[in-house]
Amino acid sequence: xxxxxxxxxxxxxxxxxxxxxxxxxxxxxxxxxxxxxxxxxxxxxxxxxxxxxxxxxxxxxxxxxxxxxxxxxxxxxxxxxxxxxxxxxxxxxxxxxxxxxxxxxxxxxxxxxxxxxxxxxxxxxxxxxxxxxxxxxxxxxxxxxxxxxxxxxxxxxxxxxxxxxxxxxxxxxxxxxxxxxxxxxxxxxxxxxxxxxxxxxxxxxxxxxxxxxxxxxxxxxxxxxxxxxxxxxxxx
Amino acid sequence: xxxxxxxxxxxxxxxxxxxxxxxxxxxxxxxxxxxxxxxxxxxxxxxxxxxxxxxxxxxxxxxxxxxxxxxxxxxxxxxxxxxxxxxxxxxxxxxxxxxxxxxxxxxxxxxxxxxxxxxxxxxxxxxxxxxxxxxxxxxxxxxxxxxxxxxxxxxxxxxxxxxxxxxxxxxxxxxxxxxxxxxxxxxxxxxxxxxxxxxxxxxxxxxxxxxxxxxxxxxxxxxxxxxxxxxxxxxx
DNA sequence: TGTTGTGAACGCTTTCACAGCT
DNA sequence: AGCTGTGAAAGCGTTCACAACA
Lengths: 236, 236
Fold this sequence. Notes:
By secondary structure, chain A is of the alpha/beta class. Chain A has nine helices and ten strands. The first copy, chain A, is globular, with a radius of gyration of 20 Å.
């Protein structure tokens, strides 16, 4: 509602900024230094008016008749998303997915180093996973404090996901990426994003089915996903 | 636009149906046979009016003064989402994530068996991953035909993701789950859902930052994510 | 009485269209 | 002339509030 200097970016725009950032990063890598809203729109699969509106929420950084500067816009989007600092990720659950995330080398360079992996299973504790040693879930408060982790990723079986969430919240984590196929119960001050692959597959199957059914047809292009995000004033 | 019998479910509602389905499944497992919109709303973290509207798109299946039947609603949601049949998934890219997906036993029971894993790397071809043998990406057309796969999951490095998408499309796949951090170019007749974990982390960091910045505050609860979905008439 | 189903109001998001700069 | 920035309009999605009904 309120915002430091009256500026406020609509949620719908916030979720598109990382997509623009990615594309602009690719453009920069190929030596492009300037782009127009038309060009970015084509690459992102949206329309130019939306790109201009979205970018206008960041400030007035374009040049009429010319376009936008790639490097400058990358900087501004990063600033807005808080990507000029690093956000440590602690992975809860050292199963297949947890290990895949811990081993993935693509997060750290983009500002999201995996700083710890924990599990409740004594057989997993002490194992090495991608340069980290699996710690006990009970150590979360200590680990979060010492590593300054800011985001928790839940990759446990569904039956342990809620207790994992409770442990993360107790340890002071307020942003959770949940891969378990259950709806977590968390305080309103905690942001949760659900990445339930079954949900994604079910949505795909709905549209695939429309394509298979004779006579069925849809025209619109839905862009939403079943994520939940709760955020309350910082003072609470 | 048009729909067989004039019925049409808004996209925003479609993405919530899998969430309801999951919760109702859990309720059924614990012996619950009836629920009210209030109860489901509390469990799903939405409000009761939304639940009633969403369920009303399926048909008139509730009983005034009483509520809804769990088993019956599960059946109706499954029917709507096309979950009374199985949707084979072919994984392209046998790296950490691809292997984690292939090994995960939670998809098949929910109607999404992983029927094949392919890679371009000759060293990976022939390896066994969760009961499947990694095949060559060049075999995709043949594999899709013989396994009747309907969904493709791209878990390759970003540099190979577009060619993976092209190969899937050429093999006749029209629904793609993309884990690579790039925007895919596909025909309009192909549905793509992007599950870019960096995008999710970046969105989380935006809200985390608001919480850390003194004086910052947001009130609304955004529920959208940067997915793209393109669907065209079945006849095309 | 209790709960659904749903028009109508509201608010957010997208799109249009053009004024304003370069 | 070209492209941005932005009010205003249109389109969706959510919420309200209550009639309908078991």
